[in-house]
Design goal:
With 202 residues, the protein is α+β, with helices and mostly antiparallel strands. The protein has helices at residues 13-21, 43-50, 53-56, 115-118, 191-196; strands at 2-7, 24-30, 37-42, 60-64, 69-79, 86-93, 100-109, 123-126, 130-135, 144-147, 156-158, 169-170, 178-183.
């Protein structure tokens, strides 16, 4: 995915306020061997880009006005507390030979045809919506699919059960959090989770 940026030389809170009033968004690009680059973005363009899931988990091509293109990864976004307004964006430069530590979304499939739902009338709860991964930029997936088709009532899917794309590993820090659980309607917790003492990850 691509987005346009313009280098900015004026910094400070007053300059940032002027940019925002003009429909621009202050941003920064950091990382790699080059110095941090202060940029500005068109608010409408970046606002609509941020609404796309793939913009948050893809290597992005930043097209700078002077013709210098860079490969970057979205790192953080600051939003106005009550307006639909982007206040600031951070990007990180991407080195093709250096592993990335980032989060990617989970896509859950086949839960509605699982035995837990079809035979037992259970509810499948998605405990996690994203996972922390490590991979080279060329192996970065836009999402990881979680197949719930074999879930039974009272069972759980853990992070270690995920089928990862080639070249991708989970950054679990020694934990094995619950990704999804099958719960009986009425609020009864999944038996396996209760018996095993697993703590659902936020």
């Amino acid at each position: 995915m691509k987005f346009s940026a313009t280098a900015r030389s004026v910094q400070g809170s007053s300059a940032s306020r002027r940019l925002r009033r003009a429909g621009r968004v202050p941003a920064i690009v950091y990382g790699g061997t080059a110095a941090p680059l202060n940029i500005e973005l068109d608010h409408n363009e970046i606002y609509h880009a941020l609404r796309k899931e793939s913009f948050h988990a893809s290597i992005l091509t930043m097209e700078v006005a002077d013709g210098q293109n860079e490969q970057v990864l979205l790192r953080s976004v600051q939003w106005h507390p009550y307006k639909q307004q982007v206040l600031h964006v951070d990007f990180q430069r991407v080195d093709a030979n250096q592993a990335l530590h980032t989060k990617v979304p989970l896509h859950f499939v086949n839960g509605d045809v699982s035995p837990a739902v079809k035979l037992s009338g259970a509810l499948i709860s998605h405990v996690m919506n994203e996972v922390d991964i490590v991979c080279l930029p060329s192996n970065l997936p836009q999402f990881i699919e979680v197949n719930l088709g074999d879930m039974l009532v009272g069972s759980s899917v853990h992070a270690s059960d995920l089928k990862l794309p080639l070249g991708v590993t989970l950054n679990l820090h020694g934990n094995n959090p619950v990704v999804a659980t099958a719960m009986v309607k009425g609020g009864a917790a999944a038996e396996e989770t209760a018996a095993g003492g697993e703590q659902p990850a936020a």
